[in-house]
Amino acid sequence: MHPVIELPGLSISTYFISIIAGLLFAIGLALLRRRAARLRTPAEDVIFAILCFMIGALIGAKAFQLVGYIILDGRNPGFWTLEHWKGTPRTS
Q: Which of 4, 52, 54, 81 is surrounded by the most beta carbons within 10 Å?
């Protein structure tokens, strides 16, 4: 899998494309299930709820990533400096 798709003047992360595809799939499925169950909930409320869930999931994922970095590198004295956080985080 390619991590980035390069277009002329634009590079798009495949992770971002996956997030958007999952979001659109979730919205479509929720609207179909709403119609099949004959619920009277407005479609806008369903879409808004899914968007709130996605935002919460992204915030939670970043929080868990930060906790992981603290567990792995928290004892390193340079970890708590601003220069460390300006650099790219270690992935392994």
A: 54
